[in-house]
Specification:
Blueprint lengths: L5 E6 L3 H11 L5 E7 L2 H11 L3 E5 L7 H10 L5 E6 L4 H4 L7 E4 L4 H31 L5 E5 L2 E5 L4 E7 L2 E6 L4 E4 L3 H8 L4 E3 L4 E4 L3 E5 L4 E6 L2 E6 L2 H9 L9
Parallel strand pairs: 1-2, 1-3, 3-4, 4-5
Antiparallel strand pairs: 6-7, 8-9, 8-12, 9-10, 11-12, 13-14, 14-15
Helix pairs in contact: 2-3
Pfam families: LytTR, Response_reg
GO molecular function: DNA binding; phosphorelay response regulator activity
InterPro entries: 2C-system_Tx_regulators (IPR051271), CheY-like_superfamily (IPR011006), LytTR_DNA-bd_dom (IPR007492), Sig_transdc_resp-reg_receiver (IPR001789)
Length: about 260
């Protein structure tokens, strides 16, 4: 991985802890600290607005536990990797379901921080390799049909035929390019996990689109304009998902 800029935010209710971590991070010229916050709630909003690559997050904070902040970040599919900073090792067990990048147990030294940063770089490199491999494989082979349970039975579909998917309580309405709508008896999150396609992009909590049908992005009004069957649909995009879209690794989407 080349040393391009890695953006970072520090959230800790102790200013001295922030200052020490900031001093350590300055030893890494490719890391840019784009925000610092001593209030957990404000830190969460800062992450939503800026989507940093790394969030150094204290767990024991008075206004909101860091575990809750981390859970909110990961639930909303944010761009950031979380590094917990804590003086209490027992928190590591509480945080296992959250799956942070790593833990830094206070007091830590710059050598500990170096290991965390190297771990992040290795993870990004692995993701990049896997993405390139997936693109290559998808370009060489036809995508098999995927089986999904619906209110009418079983649906076998090609991802290229999906235009939009919308949450419908615990179900998911799949809008097809032939104008039909199929109600899958799984929620949107589970359907996205089953389909596992880079062409499908979640634009807000309840809606996902197929990027192959994306005609235009209106950043001013926060809308994606979808084009299919000579019809244009305007779909609202949340601010954090628009930022995520801008930061995505660009690659050609193919309907073949």
């Amino acid at each position: 991985m080349d040393q391009t800029t890695i953006s970072a935010i520090i959230i800790d209710d102790e200013p001295n802890a922030i200052n020490l971590l900031e001093m350590y991070l300055r030893q890494f010229p490719f890391i840019e600290i784009i925000g610092k916050e001593t209030v957990a709630g404000k830190g969460l909003e800062l992450v939503k607005e800026t989507l940093p690559e790394l969030v150094f997050l204290d767990i024991d904070m008075p206004d909101m536990n860091g575990l809750i902040v981390a859970d909110k970040i990961q639930t909303d599919n944010f761009y950031s990797e979380i590094v917990f900073t804590t003086a209490h090792q027992h928190y590591a067990y509480d945080a296992l379901d959250i799956k942070p990048l790593d833990f830094l147990t206070k007091p830590f030294c710059i050598a500990d921080l170096t290991m965390v940063i190297e771990k992040y770089k290795a993870k990004v490199e692995k993701k990049s390799h896997e993405k390139k491999l997936d693109i290559f494989i998808n370009s060489q082979t036809s995508t098999p049909k995927i089986k999904l349970p619906t209110t009418k039975g079983i649906l076998f579909l090609d991802i290229k035929n999906i235009v939009i998917m919308r949450s419908n309580l615990n179900n998911c309405d799949v809008h097809m390019n032939d104008g039909t709508i199929e109600t899958v008896t799984r929620n949107l999150y589970k359907v996205l996990k089953i389909l596992n396609s880079p062409s499908l992009f979640q634009i807000n909590r309840s809606t996902c689109i197929n990027l192959n049908y994306l005609q235009r992005v209106d950043k001013k009004s926060l809308k994606f304009i979808i084009d299919y069957n000579q019809t244009l649909l305007e779909e609202p995009v949340s601010k954090d998902r628009m930022i995520h879209f801008d930061k995505m690794i660009k690659f050609p989407f193919s309907q073949d």
